[in-house]
Amino acid sequence: MKSLVKIVFTFFLSVVVTASSLTSALAAENIADTQHIEATGVDGKISFVNTGDSSSAAIDENGNLWTWGENVHGNLGTGDNKDKYTPTKIMNGTKFKYVTINSMNCAAIDIEGNLWTCGFYPGLGDGSKESRKVLKKIAPGIKFVSVVMNDDSFLAIDENSELWWWGSSSYLGTDKPAKVMNGQKITKVDGGGLYGHEWGAMDDAGNIFIWDPYNTSYNSPENPLLMKPGTCFTDFSLDGRLPMLIDNEGNAWGWGYTKNTIDTIGPEEVIHLFVTEKFDKVSGRILVDKDGKIRKAEYGEALGSEISISAPISDEITAKVISSTGLSNMVIDSEGILWAWGTNDSGQLGIGTTSDAETPVKVTFTDSGSSESTKRIKVGNTSSLKAPKKVTKWESSDPSIVSVKQSGKKKAKITGISQGTATITAYSGKGNKQKVVKTWTIAVE
Q: What is the pLDDT of residues 359-370, one digit of tens each?
């Protein structure tokens, strides 16, 4: 077994998540604009967070979904392509429990297990041939519990612990979810790895399987590499520099680059890291030790250097769940407060600037008062919508709940199909010049 280099990391954004109850709610009667609320102060606790590349997303204790950071592909779901430097609430009227995001796409799971996507079209999961700037429900009939992405491809786990894969880099080449690893119960997935295109899945027995479409030895979920056979793992993260695994005794295992980025150790040669330190969680190059303190991995100049672990990054923060890209880091502490630090060139830290943060900074969430209400109609009934300007396209986030048909330059007719909540979006322009004119939340009873 080769020696691993002491792998010095640019520390990344770790996010701690405290579990909170999610509640659903319907708003008032009249139709109004969906307002994207900028965060300006503390308002409630955060229960989930995810950061990827240069965009981030969080869910508060009431199930509200917030996004911020880079928005080139409409991946923030705000209906435009403008970057956001503070958390922006989207999809009022729909309550969520899980979200994953990067600079290309966003995928979120609502409290009923429905999967919603927006952003760059190869990864939207519904066969779309164009990008979209608002979340739309996909994969009807499948209830999901978690989802991750790598570039514009996705892995998702359903309520039966079965695994689904889609996107441009999936070996299936499918743009809709397709089941893989049939017969195995999967509890966690991740993407990234040594060269950025590795995927991993952990089953209910603690086995971790790694595959890379570009490696003929383990190139698919049907032909994976089993990591350290006989070892029971509890967590893992496929960061590009130092992928790490945590076993049931708290030991950290890893592989990856040396500091000079030339010499590497592959997953076939995974080694024991830090030796005496014990950990509960890992994300990117950030680990949480047995006392809930945040630590970062560091590496040396050449092969043979001993990997080291930092002292706690903050004595103030007790981490519950973490999210890190390796450059940007987020943590939710035991009080439900979100902390962020690291690279912030696109505002992905959500602290109101594009300046980097060397130490953890509180991210604040405030709903400054949305005037949005939900229009209620009954199954089989119709109603009319009117936009403030000429509309070139009308779209329903879920046509199985409410359909929409243009009835004039500014008007459309909606019909309740089945019980549930959906978003109607009116667009102006075409192609790259297409913009959202207005959105409505429709509850069908």
A: 999 998 976 443
If one compares 325 and 37, the residue with the highest pLDDT of the two is: 325
Residue 325: closest CA among 345, 303, 351: 345
Domains of the chain plus CATH, in order, are 37-363 (2.130.10.30), 374-444 (2.60.40.1080)
What is d(CA 427, CA 186) in angstroms, rounded to the nearest whole number? 40
In 3D space, the residue among 353, 378, 375, 373 whose CA is nearest the CA of residue 363 turns out to be: 353
- Residues 158-181 have a mean pLDDT of 85
- Give the least confident one: 61-65, 152-156, 257-261, 336-340: 257-261
pLDDT band (50, 70, 90) for residue 24: very low
pLDDT of 76 > 90? The answer is yes
Q: Are 348 and 363 in contact (CB under 8 A)?
A: no
More confident residue, 434 or 179: 179
Tell me how far apart the alpha carbons of residues 58 and 338 are, in angstroms, rounded to a whole number: 9
Under the banding of pLDDT at 50, 70 and 90, the label for residue 15 is: very low
The Cβ of residue 185 has, within 10 Å, a number of other Cβ atoms equal to 13
Summarised one tens digit per residue, pLDDT across range 201-248 is 999 999 999 998 888 899 889 999 999 999 999 999 997 678 899 999
Pairing of strands 252-254, 271-273: antiparallel
Residues 75 and 77: their CA atoms lie apart, in Å, by: 5
Q: What is the 3-state secondary structure (H, E, C) of the chain?
A: CCCCCCCCCCCCCCCCCCCCCCCCCCCCCCCCCCCCEECCCCCCCEEEEEEECCEEEEEECCCCEEEEECCCCCCCCCCCCCCEEEEEEECCCCCEEEEEECCCEEEEEECCCCEEEEECHHHCCCCCCCCEEEEEEECCCCCEEEEEEECCEEEEEECCCCEEEEECCCCCCCCCCEEECCCCCEEEEEEECCCCCEEEEEECCCCEEEECCCCCCCCECCECEECCCCCCEEEEECCCCCCEEEECCCCEEECEECCCCCCEECHHHCEEECCCCCEEEEECCEEEECCCCEEEEECCCCCCCCCEECCCCCCCCCEEEEEECCCEEEEEECCCCEEEEECCCCCCCCCCCCCCEEEEEEECCCCCCCCCCEEEECCCCEEEEECCCCCCEEEECCCCCEEEEECCCCEEEEEECCCEEEEEEEEECCHHHCEEEEEEEEEEC
pLDDT of residue 305: 55
